[in-house]
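Chapter summary example: a protein plus NAP.
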Amino acid sequence: MKTVKLNNGIVMPAVGYGTYQTAPAQTTENVLQALRTGYRLIDTAQYYGNEAEVGEALTESGLLRDQVFVTTKVQTSGYAETKQGLDESLRRFNHDYFDLVIIHWPTGNDAETYRALEDAYHDGKVRAIGLSNFNADQVQEIIDGATVEPAIDQIETHLMWQQKRMHAYLTSRGMVHESYAPLGEGQPGFLDNPVLVKMAARYHVTPAQLTLRFMNQENIVVIPKTLNRKHMAENLDIFGFTIDQDDLRALEGLDQKRAIDGWPATMQEDQY
Ligand SMILES: NC(=O)c1ccc[n+]([C@@H]2O[C@H](COP(=O)([O-])OP(=O)(O)OC[C@H]3O[C@@H](n4cnc5c(N)ncnc54)[C@H](OP(=O)(O)O)[C@@H]3O)[C@@H](O)[C@H]2O)c1
């Protein structure tokens, strides 16, 4: 498994498994299958309601805790609520720590929310902390007040919205750019894009594999989600080919700076 190093030296897999909208009843089985397939990064959130089942799958897998990197996201606002919420997440997860905890989206009270993550970090409840859906100005505000610099920003990123500006900013701050919805949620116009389909055939891979490898070659961590076992294996198997420079440029040309549904408005590039 290829990895990236976070700003505190912690190593994180470059490809992970997303669990958004995976019902709790389906989560244990699917995460267990993902772990058996070879995934070592699992992405959950308080909002998804499946932290307990992710923890259960980890236990059932028989893997050691330090062999799997688990991210969760807090949706609380402010210090006290976040501290309590994170302790409840840990109880549900039923393991000693999370590898990464990020603020799911800005609420306006983010310095205080972030302070609770810093304390959890110092207390050993989490190995790295970061942000999600924060634009460059919002990330900078956190950095300016931080005692522990954020390691990551998890933001919507795919072929149709490559987040070039955020990527340059995050790289300049030593932060990792993590893509959510890397396959454009499988919506029409993404994996069936004719340029992508034609190029994928040339590399003897699927459009999903080409998309994920493209982001991987741009140093972006990806966390595709699937409930289909064939897709699960395919999305992890992206390191057997290298996209050449001309094709990378052609894929860059597909960028429309287009969010799937415009959320959150603050991420749109005219907002920062
Ligand atoms: N921080 C945030 O605010 C935020 C927001 C959204 C998502 N996320 C995280 O990012 C993860 C990924 O995003 P997402 O779940 O929204 O969307 P996604 O991973 O971009 O797309 C998932 C869709 O793609 C299809 N798919 C997956 N692999 C495929 C393949 N190889 N070939 C064809 N279709 C394929 C899936 O269908 P099948 O099941 O049929 O394969 C599903 O419909 C989430 O699960 C979550 O962990 C975070």
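Key point: The longest helix spans residues 79-93.
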